[in-house]
Design goal:
- This protein is α+β, with helices and mostly antiparallel strands.
Length: about 120
Amino acid sequence: MEFFRKINLKTTEQQIQKSLTLSNLSEISNEIFNLNEPNDTEANIGGIWGEFTLIRSEIRGGIRFALLECPNALCWTITAGFPPDAESAIIHLTINQQKRNQDFVEEIEEFLEDMSQCLIRFLKV
């Protein structure tokens, strides 16, 4: 399944990569948190779905986060500067299932909404 969230936020690839780190997860989302001191690419986190290893990778346009042990292979990207709306940031979240129960889908939607609001506050230029 795929989920998208468009954020009316003028930002850049460079700002996303510089600002959205594993050390400041509390600025990115209220629903995930560090369980120990992260390094640049990996952190042990807790959150709404349990405890996982979260990895962070810089990609074209922004960053990708992935939950390594997640049975749904949940990952998301935060990017900016692409058509059709280069003036907005996009969160793209995927899981490895074509269908999931409605409760899980609602949790994902709440996670995306929370992250959208956090990013607007944190990355406001």
